[in-house]
Amino acid sequence: MSNENIYKRAKELFFEKNSPTDFIAIDSNIIHLEALKSSMSNRFKFILLTGEPGVGKSMLLKRAHYEIADEDIVLIDYPFLSLHDFQQTLSHKLFAKESNLLEKIKSSSKIYTLFLDEVQLYPDELLEYLRLLSDTQKFRFVLTFHTDKDSEKLQQKHFATRTYKMLHMNPPNPKELQIYLQKKLLHASLPELARTIDKKRAKLIHHFTQGNLRQTDKFLITLFDIMDYFYTNHPTKINTNKIPIKYIEMSAIHLGLLDA
Amino acid sequence: MHEYELVEKRWRRYRYKRVLMKVVFIGIVAILLFILYSLLPQIPLPSLPFLTSKLSQQNYLAPSLDFEKHLKKYVIHTPPQTKTSYAKKSEKEIPKESAPKNRKFLISAQKLTLTQMLDKYKKAPSIDLAIMIANEYFQQKKYKQAMEWAIKANSFDTENEKSWIIYAKSAYKLGDKNKAVNALKIYLYKHKSPQVKKLLTQILQQEGVQ
Predict the structure, then answer these.
(1) Do A142 and A239 fall within a single domain?
(2) How far is the CA of B198 from the CAs of A21, A32, B93, B134, in angstroms?
């Protein structure tokens, strides 16, 4: 191991940047990404992307938007509390200025695709508006929802008959999580740390985070922060090429995921 | 103290608890195994019927065993009325020639026919009678019946040595050497019986019984 404090670098790596270039392809999200990309050539009103919080829906949406790279596709990755705010933002994004959206659309020959994130937070009035826009045949939507009973009701109420495809994302399994962590570390040129994420460690981290990627990132930040602290202040305690199980368990204790 | 050093302290406590729990668990398992093991010898022998699924009617051996002769004496010298005297006498081997003349009458007066034994058993079943009947059948070379009566005797007391011996001899005579050997081995697993051991050796070596 070199003298450079690799733990500090690794810690920085796991801070959420939400950039589509940080997307890590694993089995469970590649399938959905390809499904989304291939659907763009079809006619549809709504595609719903669902899954538990932290499963990687937002990142997938951003990555799809990034890869398709079409100027008629608009990504809005924050929720709206009122219809007015939404209309203003949309006009601005589509026509670069505030204007009467419906009037503008009528005169346009384009079909716009809207990628909307966190739709479970949208008020009913706004969901109804999305439905209306879809009926104009000028808009189509890719929406992400958290999976819970309320959002399921919401989907059925507003989009049941208009949904073309529903993609449900599951949390990665331990093997996928191992690949996720290794790829992430390798992308940041930290092969020595990528190698230390073996099956046993990945399984243990998965056990604590249940495969939730947001939780996993947070876990890894804590883990490398602890290792950074001991590497700086008690270098004799970190004398191995592997991430000791001790520090994984300490991270879990610190985050309240392990009762000690 | 830095928060991570406190976390390390908590981790040490957690680790200590986990190791302690493992030790306690292993200890409990070890104690349970020990108790189970010490209880094993007290588990009664399996009764004979489990061995009687198939009685081979074929391949009768012509055994060189002379235990028939021995059994004849055993029946003659055993009054069926008393259990204790029966047991004692059964172990003795008194040659016919050496028996005093005045005992002949007494012996012949005490001997019961098979029909009488079966009648008696009907009225008052007992392990001694069952063994006598088994022996009688054995002498008459009716080995299948001898086996059945050995099983009946065994159902009174699974530890009864004679029932196992008659069963094994009958099985052997019927040509089922394996069954005979298995029965004797099962008995020897629980008991140190020179008689059974001797019989087992004889059967295994196909030698005559001394």
Answers:
(1) no
(2) 86, 78, 16, 20
Q: Kindly identify which residue of chain B lies nearest to residue A224, measuring between CA atoms.
A: B4
Does pLDDT of A197 surpass 90?
yes
- Do A71 and A113 meet the contact criterion of CB atoms below 8 Å apart? no
Do A162 and A206 lie in one domain? The reply is no
Contacts of A226 in chain B (CB under 8 A): 4, 7
Q: Contact B11/A230, CB-based, under 8 Å?
A: no
Q: What fold does the segment set B47-205 form as a domain? A: 1.25.40
High-pLDDT (> 70) share of chain A, %? 92
Residue A260 banded pLDDT, cuts 50, 70, 90 = confident
User: If we measure between CA atoms, which residue out of A147, A148, A151, A154 comes closest to residue A170?
Assistant: A147
pLDDT above 60 (res B62): no
CA distance B16 to chain A (A): 10
Residues from chain B that touch A246, judged by Cβ atoms under 8 A, are 11, 15
- At A119, which CATH number? 3.40.50.300
CA dihedral angle for residue A127, residue A132, residue A133, residue A135, rounded to 10 degrees: 130
Instruction: Report residue B41's pLDDT band, with 50, 70 and 90 as the boundaries.
Output: low
Residues A164 and A230 both lie in one domain: no
> What's A107's DSSP letter?
H
Residue A163 lies in domain: 27-169
Point out the residue among A229, A249, A258 whose CB comes nearest to the CB of B4. Answer: A229
pLDDT, one tens digit per residue, over A68-108 is 988 889 999 888 888 888 888 888 888 776 667 777 777 77
Inspect the interface and report whether the beta carbons of A260 and B13 lie closer than 8 Å.
yes
Domain positions in chain B are 3-40, 47-205
